[in-house]
Design a protein that fits this description.
The protein is mainly alpha-helical and about 425 residues long. About 75% of the residues lie in helices and about 5% in strands. The protein has 3 domains: about 160 residues, no CATH class; about 55 residues; about 110 residues, 3-Layer(aba) Sandwich (Rossmann fold), CATH 3.40.50.2300. α3 packs across α4. This is DUF2325 domain-containing protein.
Length: about 425
């Protein structure tokens, strides 16, 4: 039966093709097996319902399937419905029809159809190709087969799209619920902020009122102050004097600070000078000591102390060894006290009491020790020689002077009984 229907469709198509000549075929010129894909693919369902309603005068009570089947039945012959559908298809796909006119051979026509399939624009190409004057039964059958498979693929794609659409609907519902929660949180946050803003505005109003009150008080106080100024005589001159006193006090503080700085600088300079002087004196003492060490043994001393206790008070610490060597060479016993520089003052009295002869270095002794030595020797009559220069040679001259005084005293003691 299928072969019979196919052969009849083939004969019908061949008959209509031969009768058509070189002009484009009309919808009613095509075989019945092409009407279904043309109506289903090339005309949107809403447009088909509108066109059929227009053809029937607006009196149509049918569902989409009945409209589809009825339109296919009307396309087999020329009538008002087929003419309206023909006009709509030509207007809708005018650009595609114009592009297919350049095909002058069956191979070119087939190539245009294949390109349309690859480009995904098959609706207009299907109508332009089927109505082309060069479209024969073999081209028509190939296009219908391709369209049939494309409809299957489109159905699978639609099913996959439906699955994805349902997943997107579910995801959209989840996102919608999340967005509703976010909106609820945002609304609550906005309400909280609005409440805070309202409280801040109330605070601002209160502060402004307080500020206005304070400004009024300040104005009243300024008025009272001006009145008091007017009642006090010579207030401006007193204020100028007060400012001048404050300036003088500030200047005095600056001068006191300058004096403190100058004192500090003077103290630093004095310390540096003392250090330099001490270093210089130490250097000179070392030089004198080195010279005296070389020459003190050559100093001629014509005295003999005969085991007398000789106390040397003061003098430089670097010369003590030379003092000791000189006194012990002439037979004396040497004792030393630094005159209160480092040795205790209480030891000075005991040292003076044990001494037979006192040598006082006046240039290197404290004032207190000097007067104590002088007072002690004067009170006890003990022999005391004052030496200004701390050198060994000055000590030797002092010893000679003391020896002469001792000898003269002894001679007077021996001569007094005989007389």
């Amino acid at each position: 039966m299928c072969e019979k229907h196919s052969s009849s469709a083939k004969n019908e198509s061949a008959t209509k093709s031969s009768s058509a000549g070189s002009r484009r075929r009309r919808l009613w010129d095509l075989s019945r097996d092409t009407h279904c894909p043309i109506i289903g693919v090339c005309i949107p369902l809403a447009v088909l319902r509108r066109l059929i309603s227009k053809a029937l005068g607006g009196n149509m009570q049918a569902d989409d399937y009945e409209i589809h089947v009825g339109a296919i039945a009307e396309c087999s012959q020329r009538n008002r419905v087929s003419e309206i559908l023909q006009e709509d298809l030509d207007q809708r796909y005018a650009l595609t029809i114009k592009r297919f006119r350049i095909a002058k051979t069956r191979e070119a026509l087939v190539q245009l159809w294949v390109d349309a399939i690859y480009q995904g624009d098959v609706a207009g190409a299907f109508w332009a190709g089927l109505t082309h004057p060069l479209c024969d039964y073999s081209i028509q059958e190939g296009m219908c087969r391709d369209m049939h498979m494309l409809q299957h693929q489109a159905g699978a794609t639609v099913r996959a799209d439906i699955v994805r659409f349902n997943a997107l609907l579910e995801e959209n519902a989840i996102l919608g619920r999340e967005m509703a929660r976010q909106q609820e949180r945002q609304t609550r946050h906005i309400q909280e902020k609005a409440h805070e803003i309202e409280q801040l505005q109330q605070t601002i109003v209160q502060l402004r009122a307080e500020n206005i009150g304070k400004e009024s008080v300040i104005a009243y106080l300024n008025t009272d102050l001006q009145a008091l100024k007017n009642t006090v005589p010579e207030l401006a001159s007193r204020q100028r004097l007060q400012q001048k006193i404050e300036q003088m006090i500030s200047r005095q503080h600056e001068l006191e600070q300058l004096v403190r700085e100058l004192k500090h600088q003077l103290l630093s300079a004095t310390r540096r000078t003392a250090q330099h002087t001490e270093q210089t004196e130490q250097h000179q003492v070392q030089e004198v000591k080195s010279v005296e060490i070389k020459h003190h043994r050559t100093i001629p001393i014509a005295i003999q102390l005969q085991q007398k206790n000789v106390l040397c008070v003061g003098g430089r610490s670097g010369n003590v060894a030379s003092y000791r060597d000189l006194i012990e060479r002439v037979g004396g016993r040497f004792a030393h006290h630094d005159g209160g520089m480092e040795d205790s003052q209480s030891l000075l009295d005991s040292s003076l009491a044990a001494a037979d002869l006192v040598i006082c270095q006046t240039g290197c002794i404290s004032h207190n020790a000097y007067w104590r030595v002088k007072e002690f020797c004067k009170r006890t009559g003990k022999r005391c020689v004052f030496v200004e220069n701390p050198s060994v040679s000055s000590l030797a001259r002092g010893l000679e002077q003391a020896s002469e005084e001792l000898e003269s005293g002894q001679n007077e003691e021996h001569s007094s009984p005989t007389s």
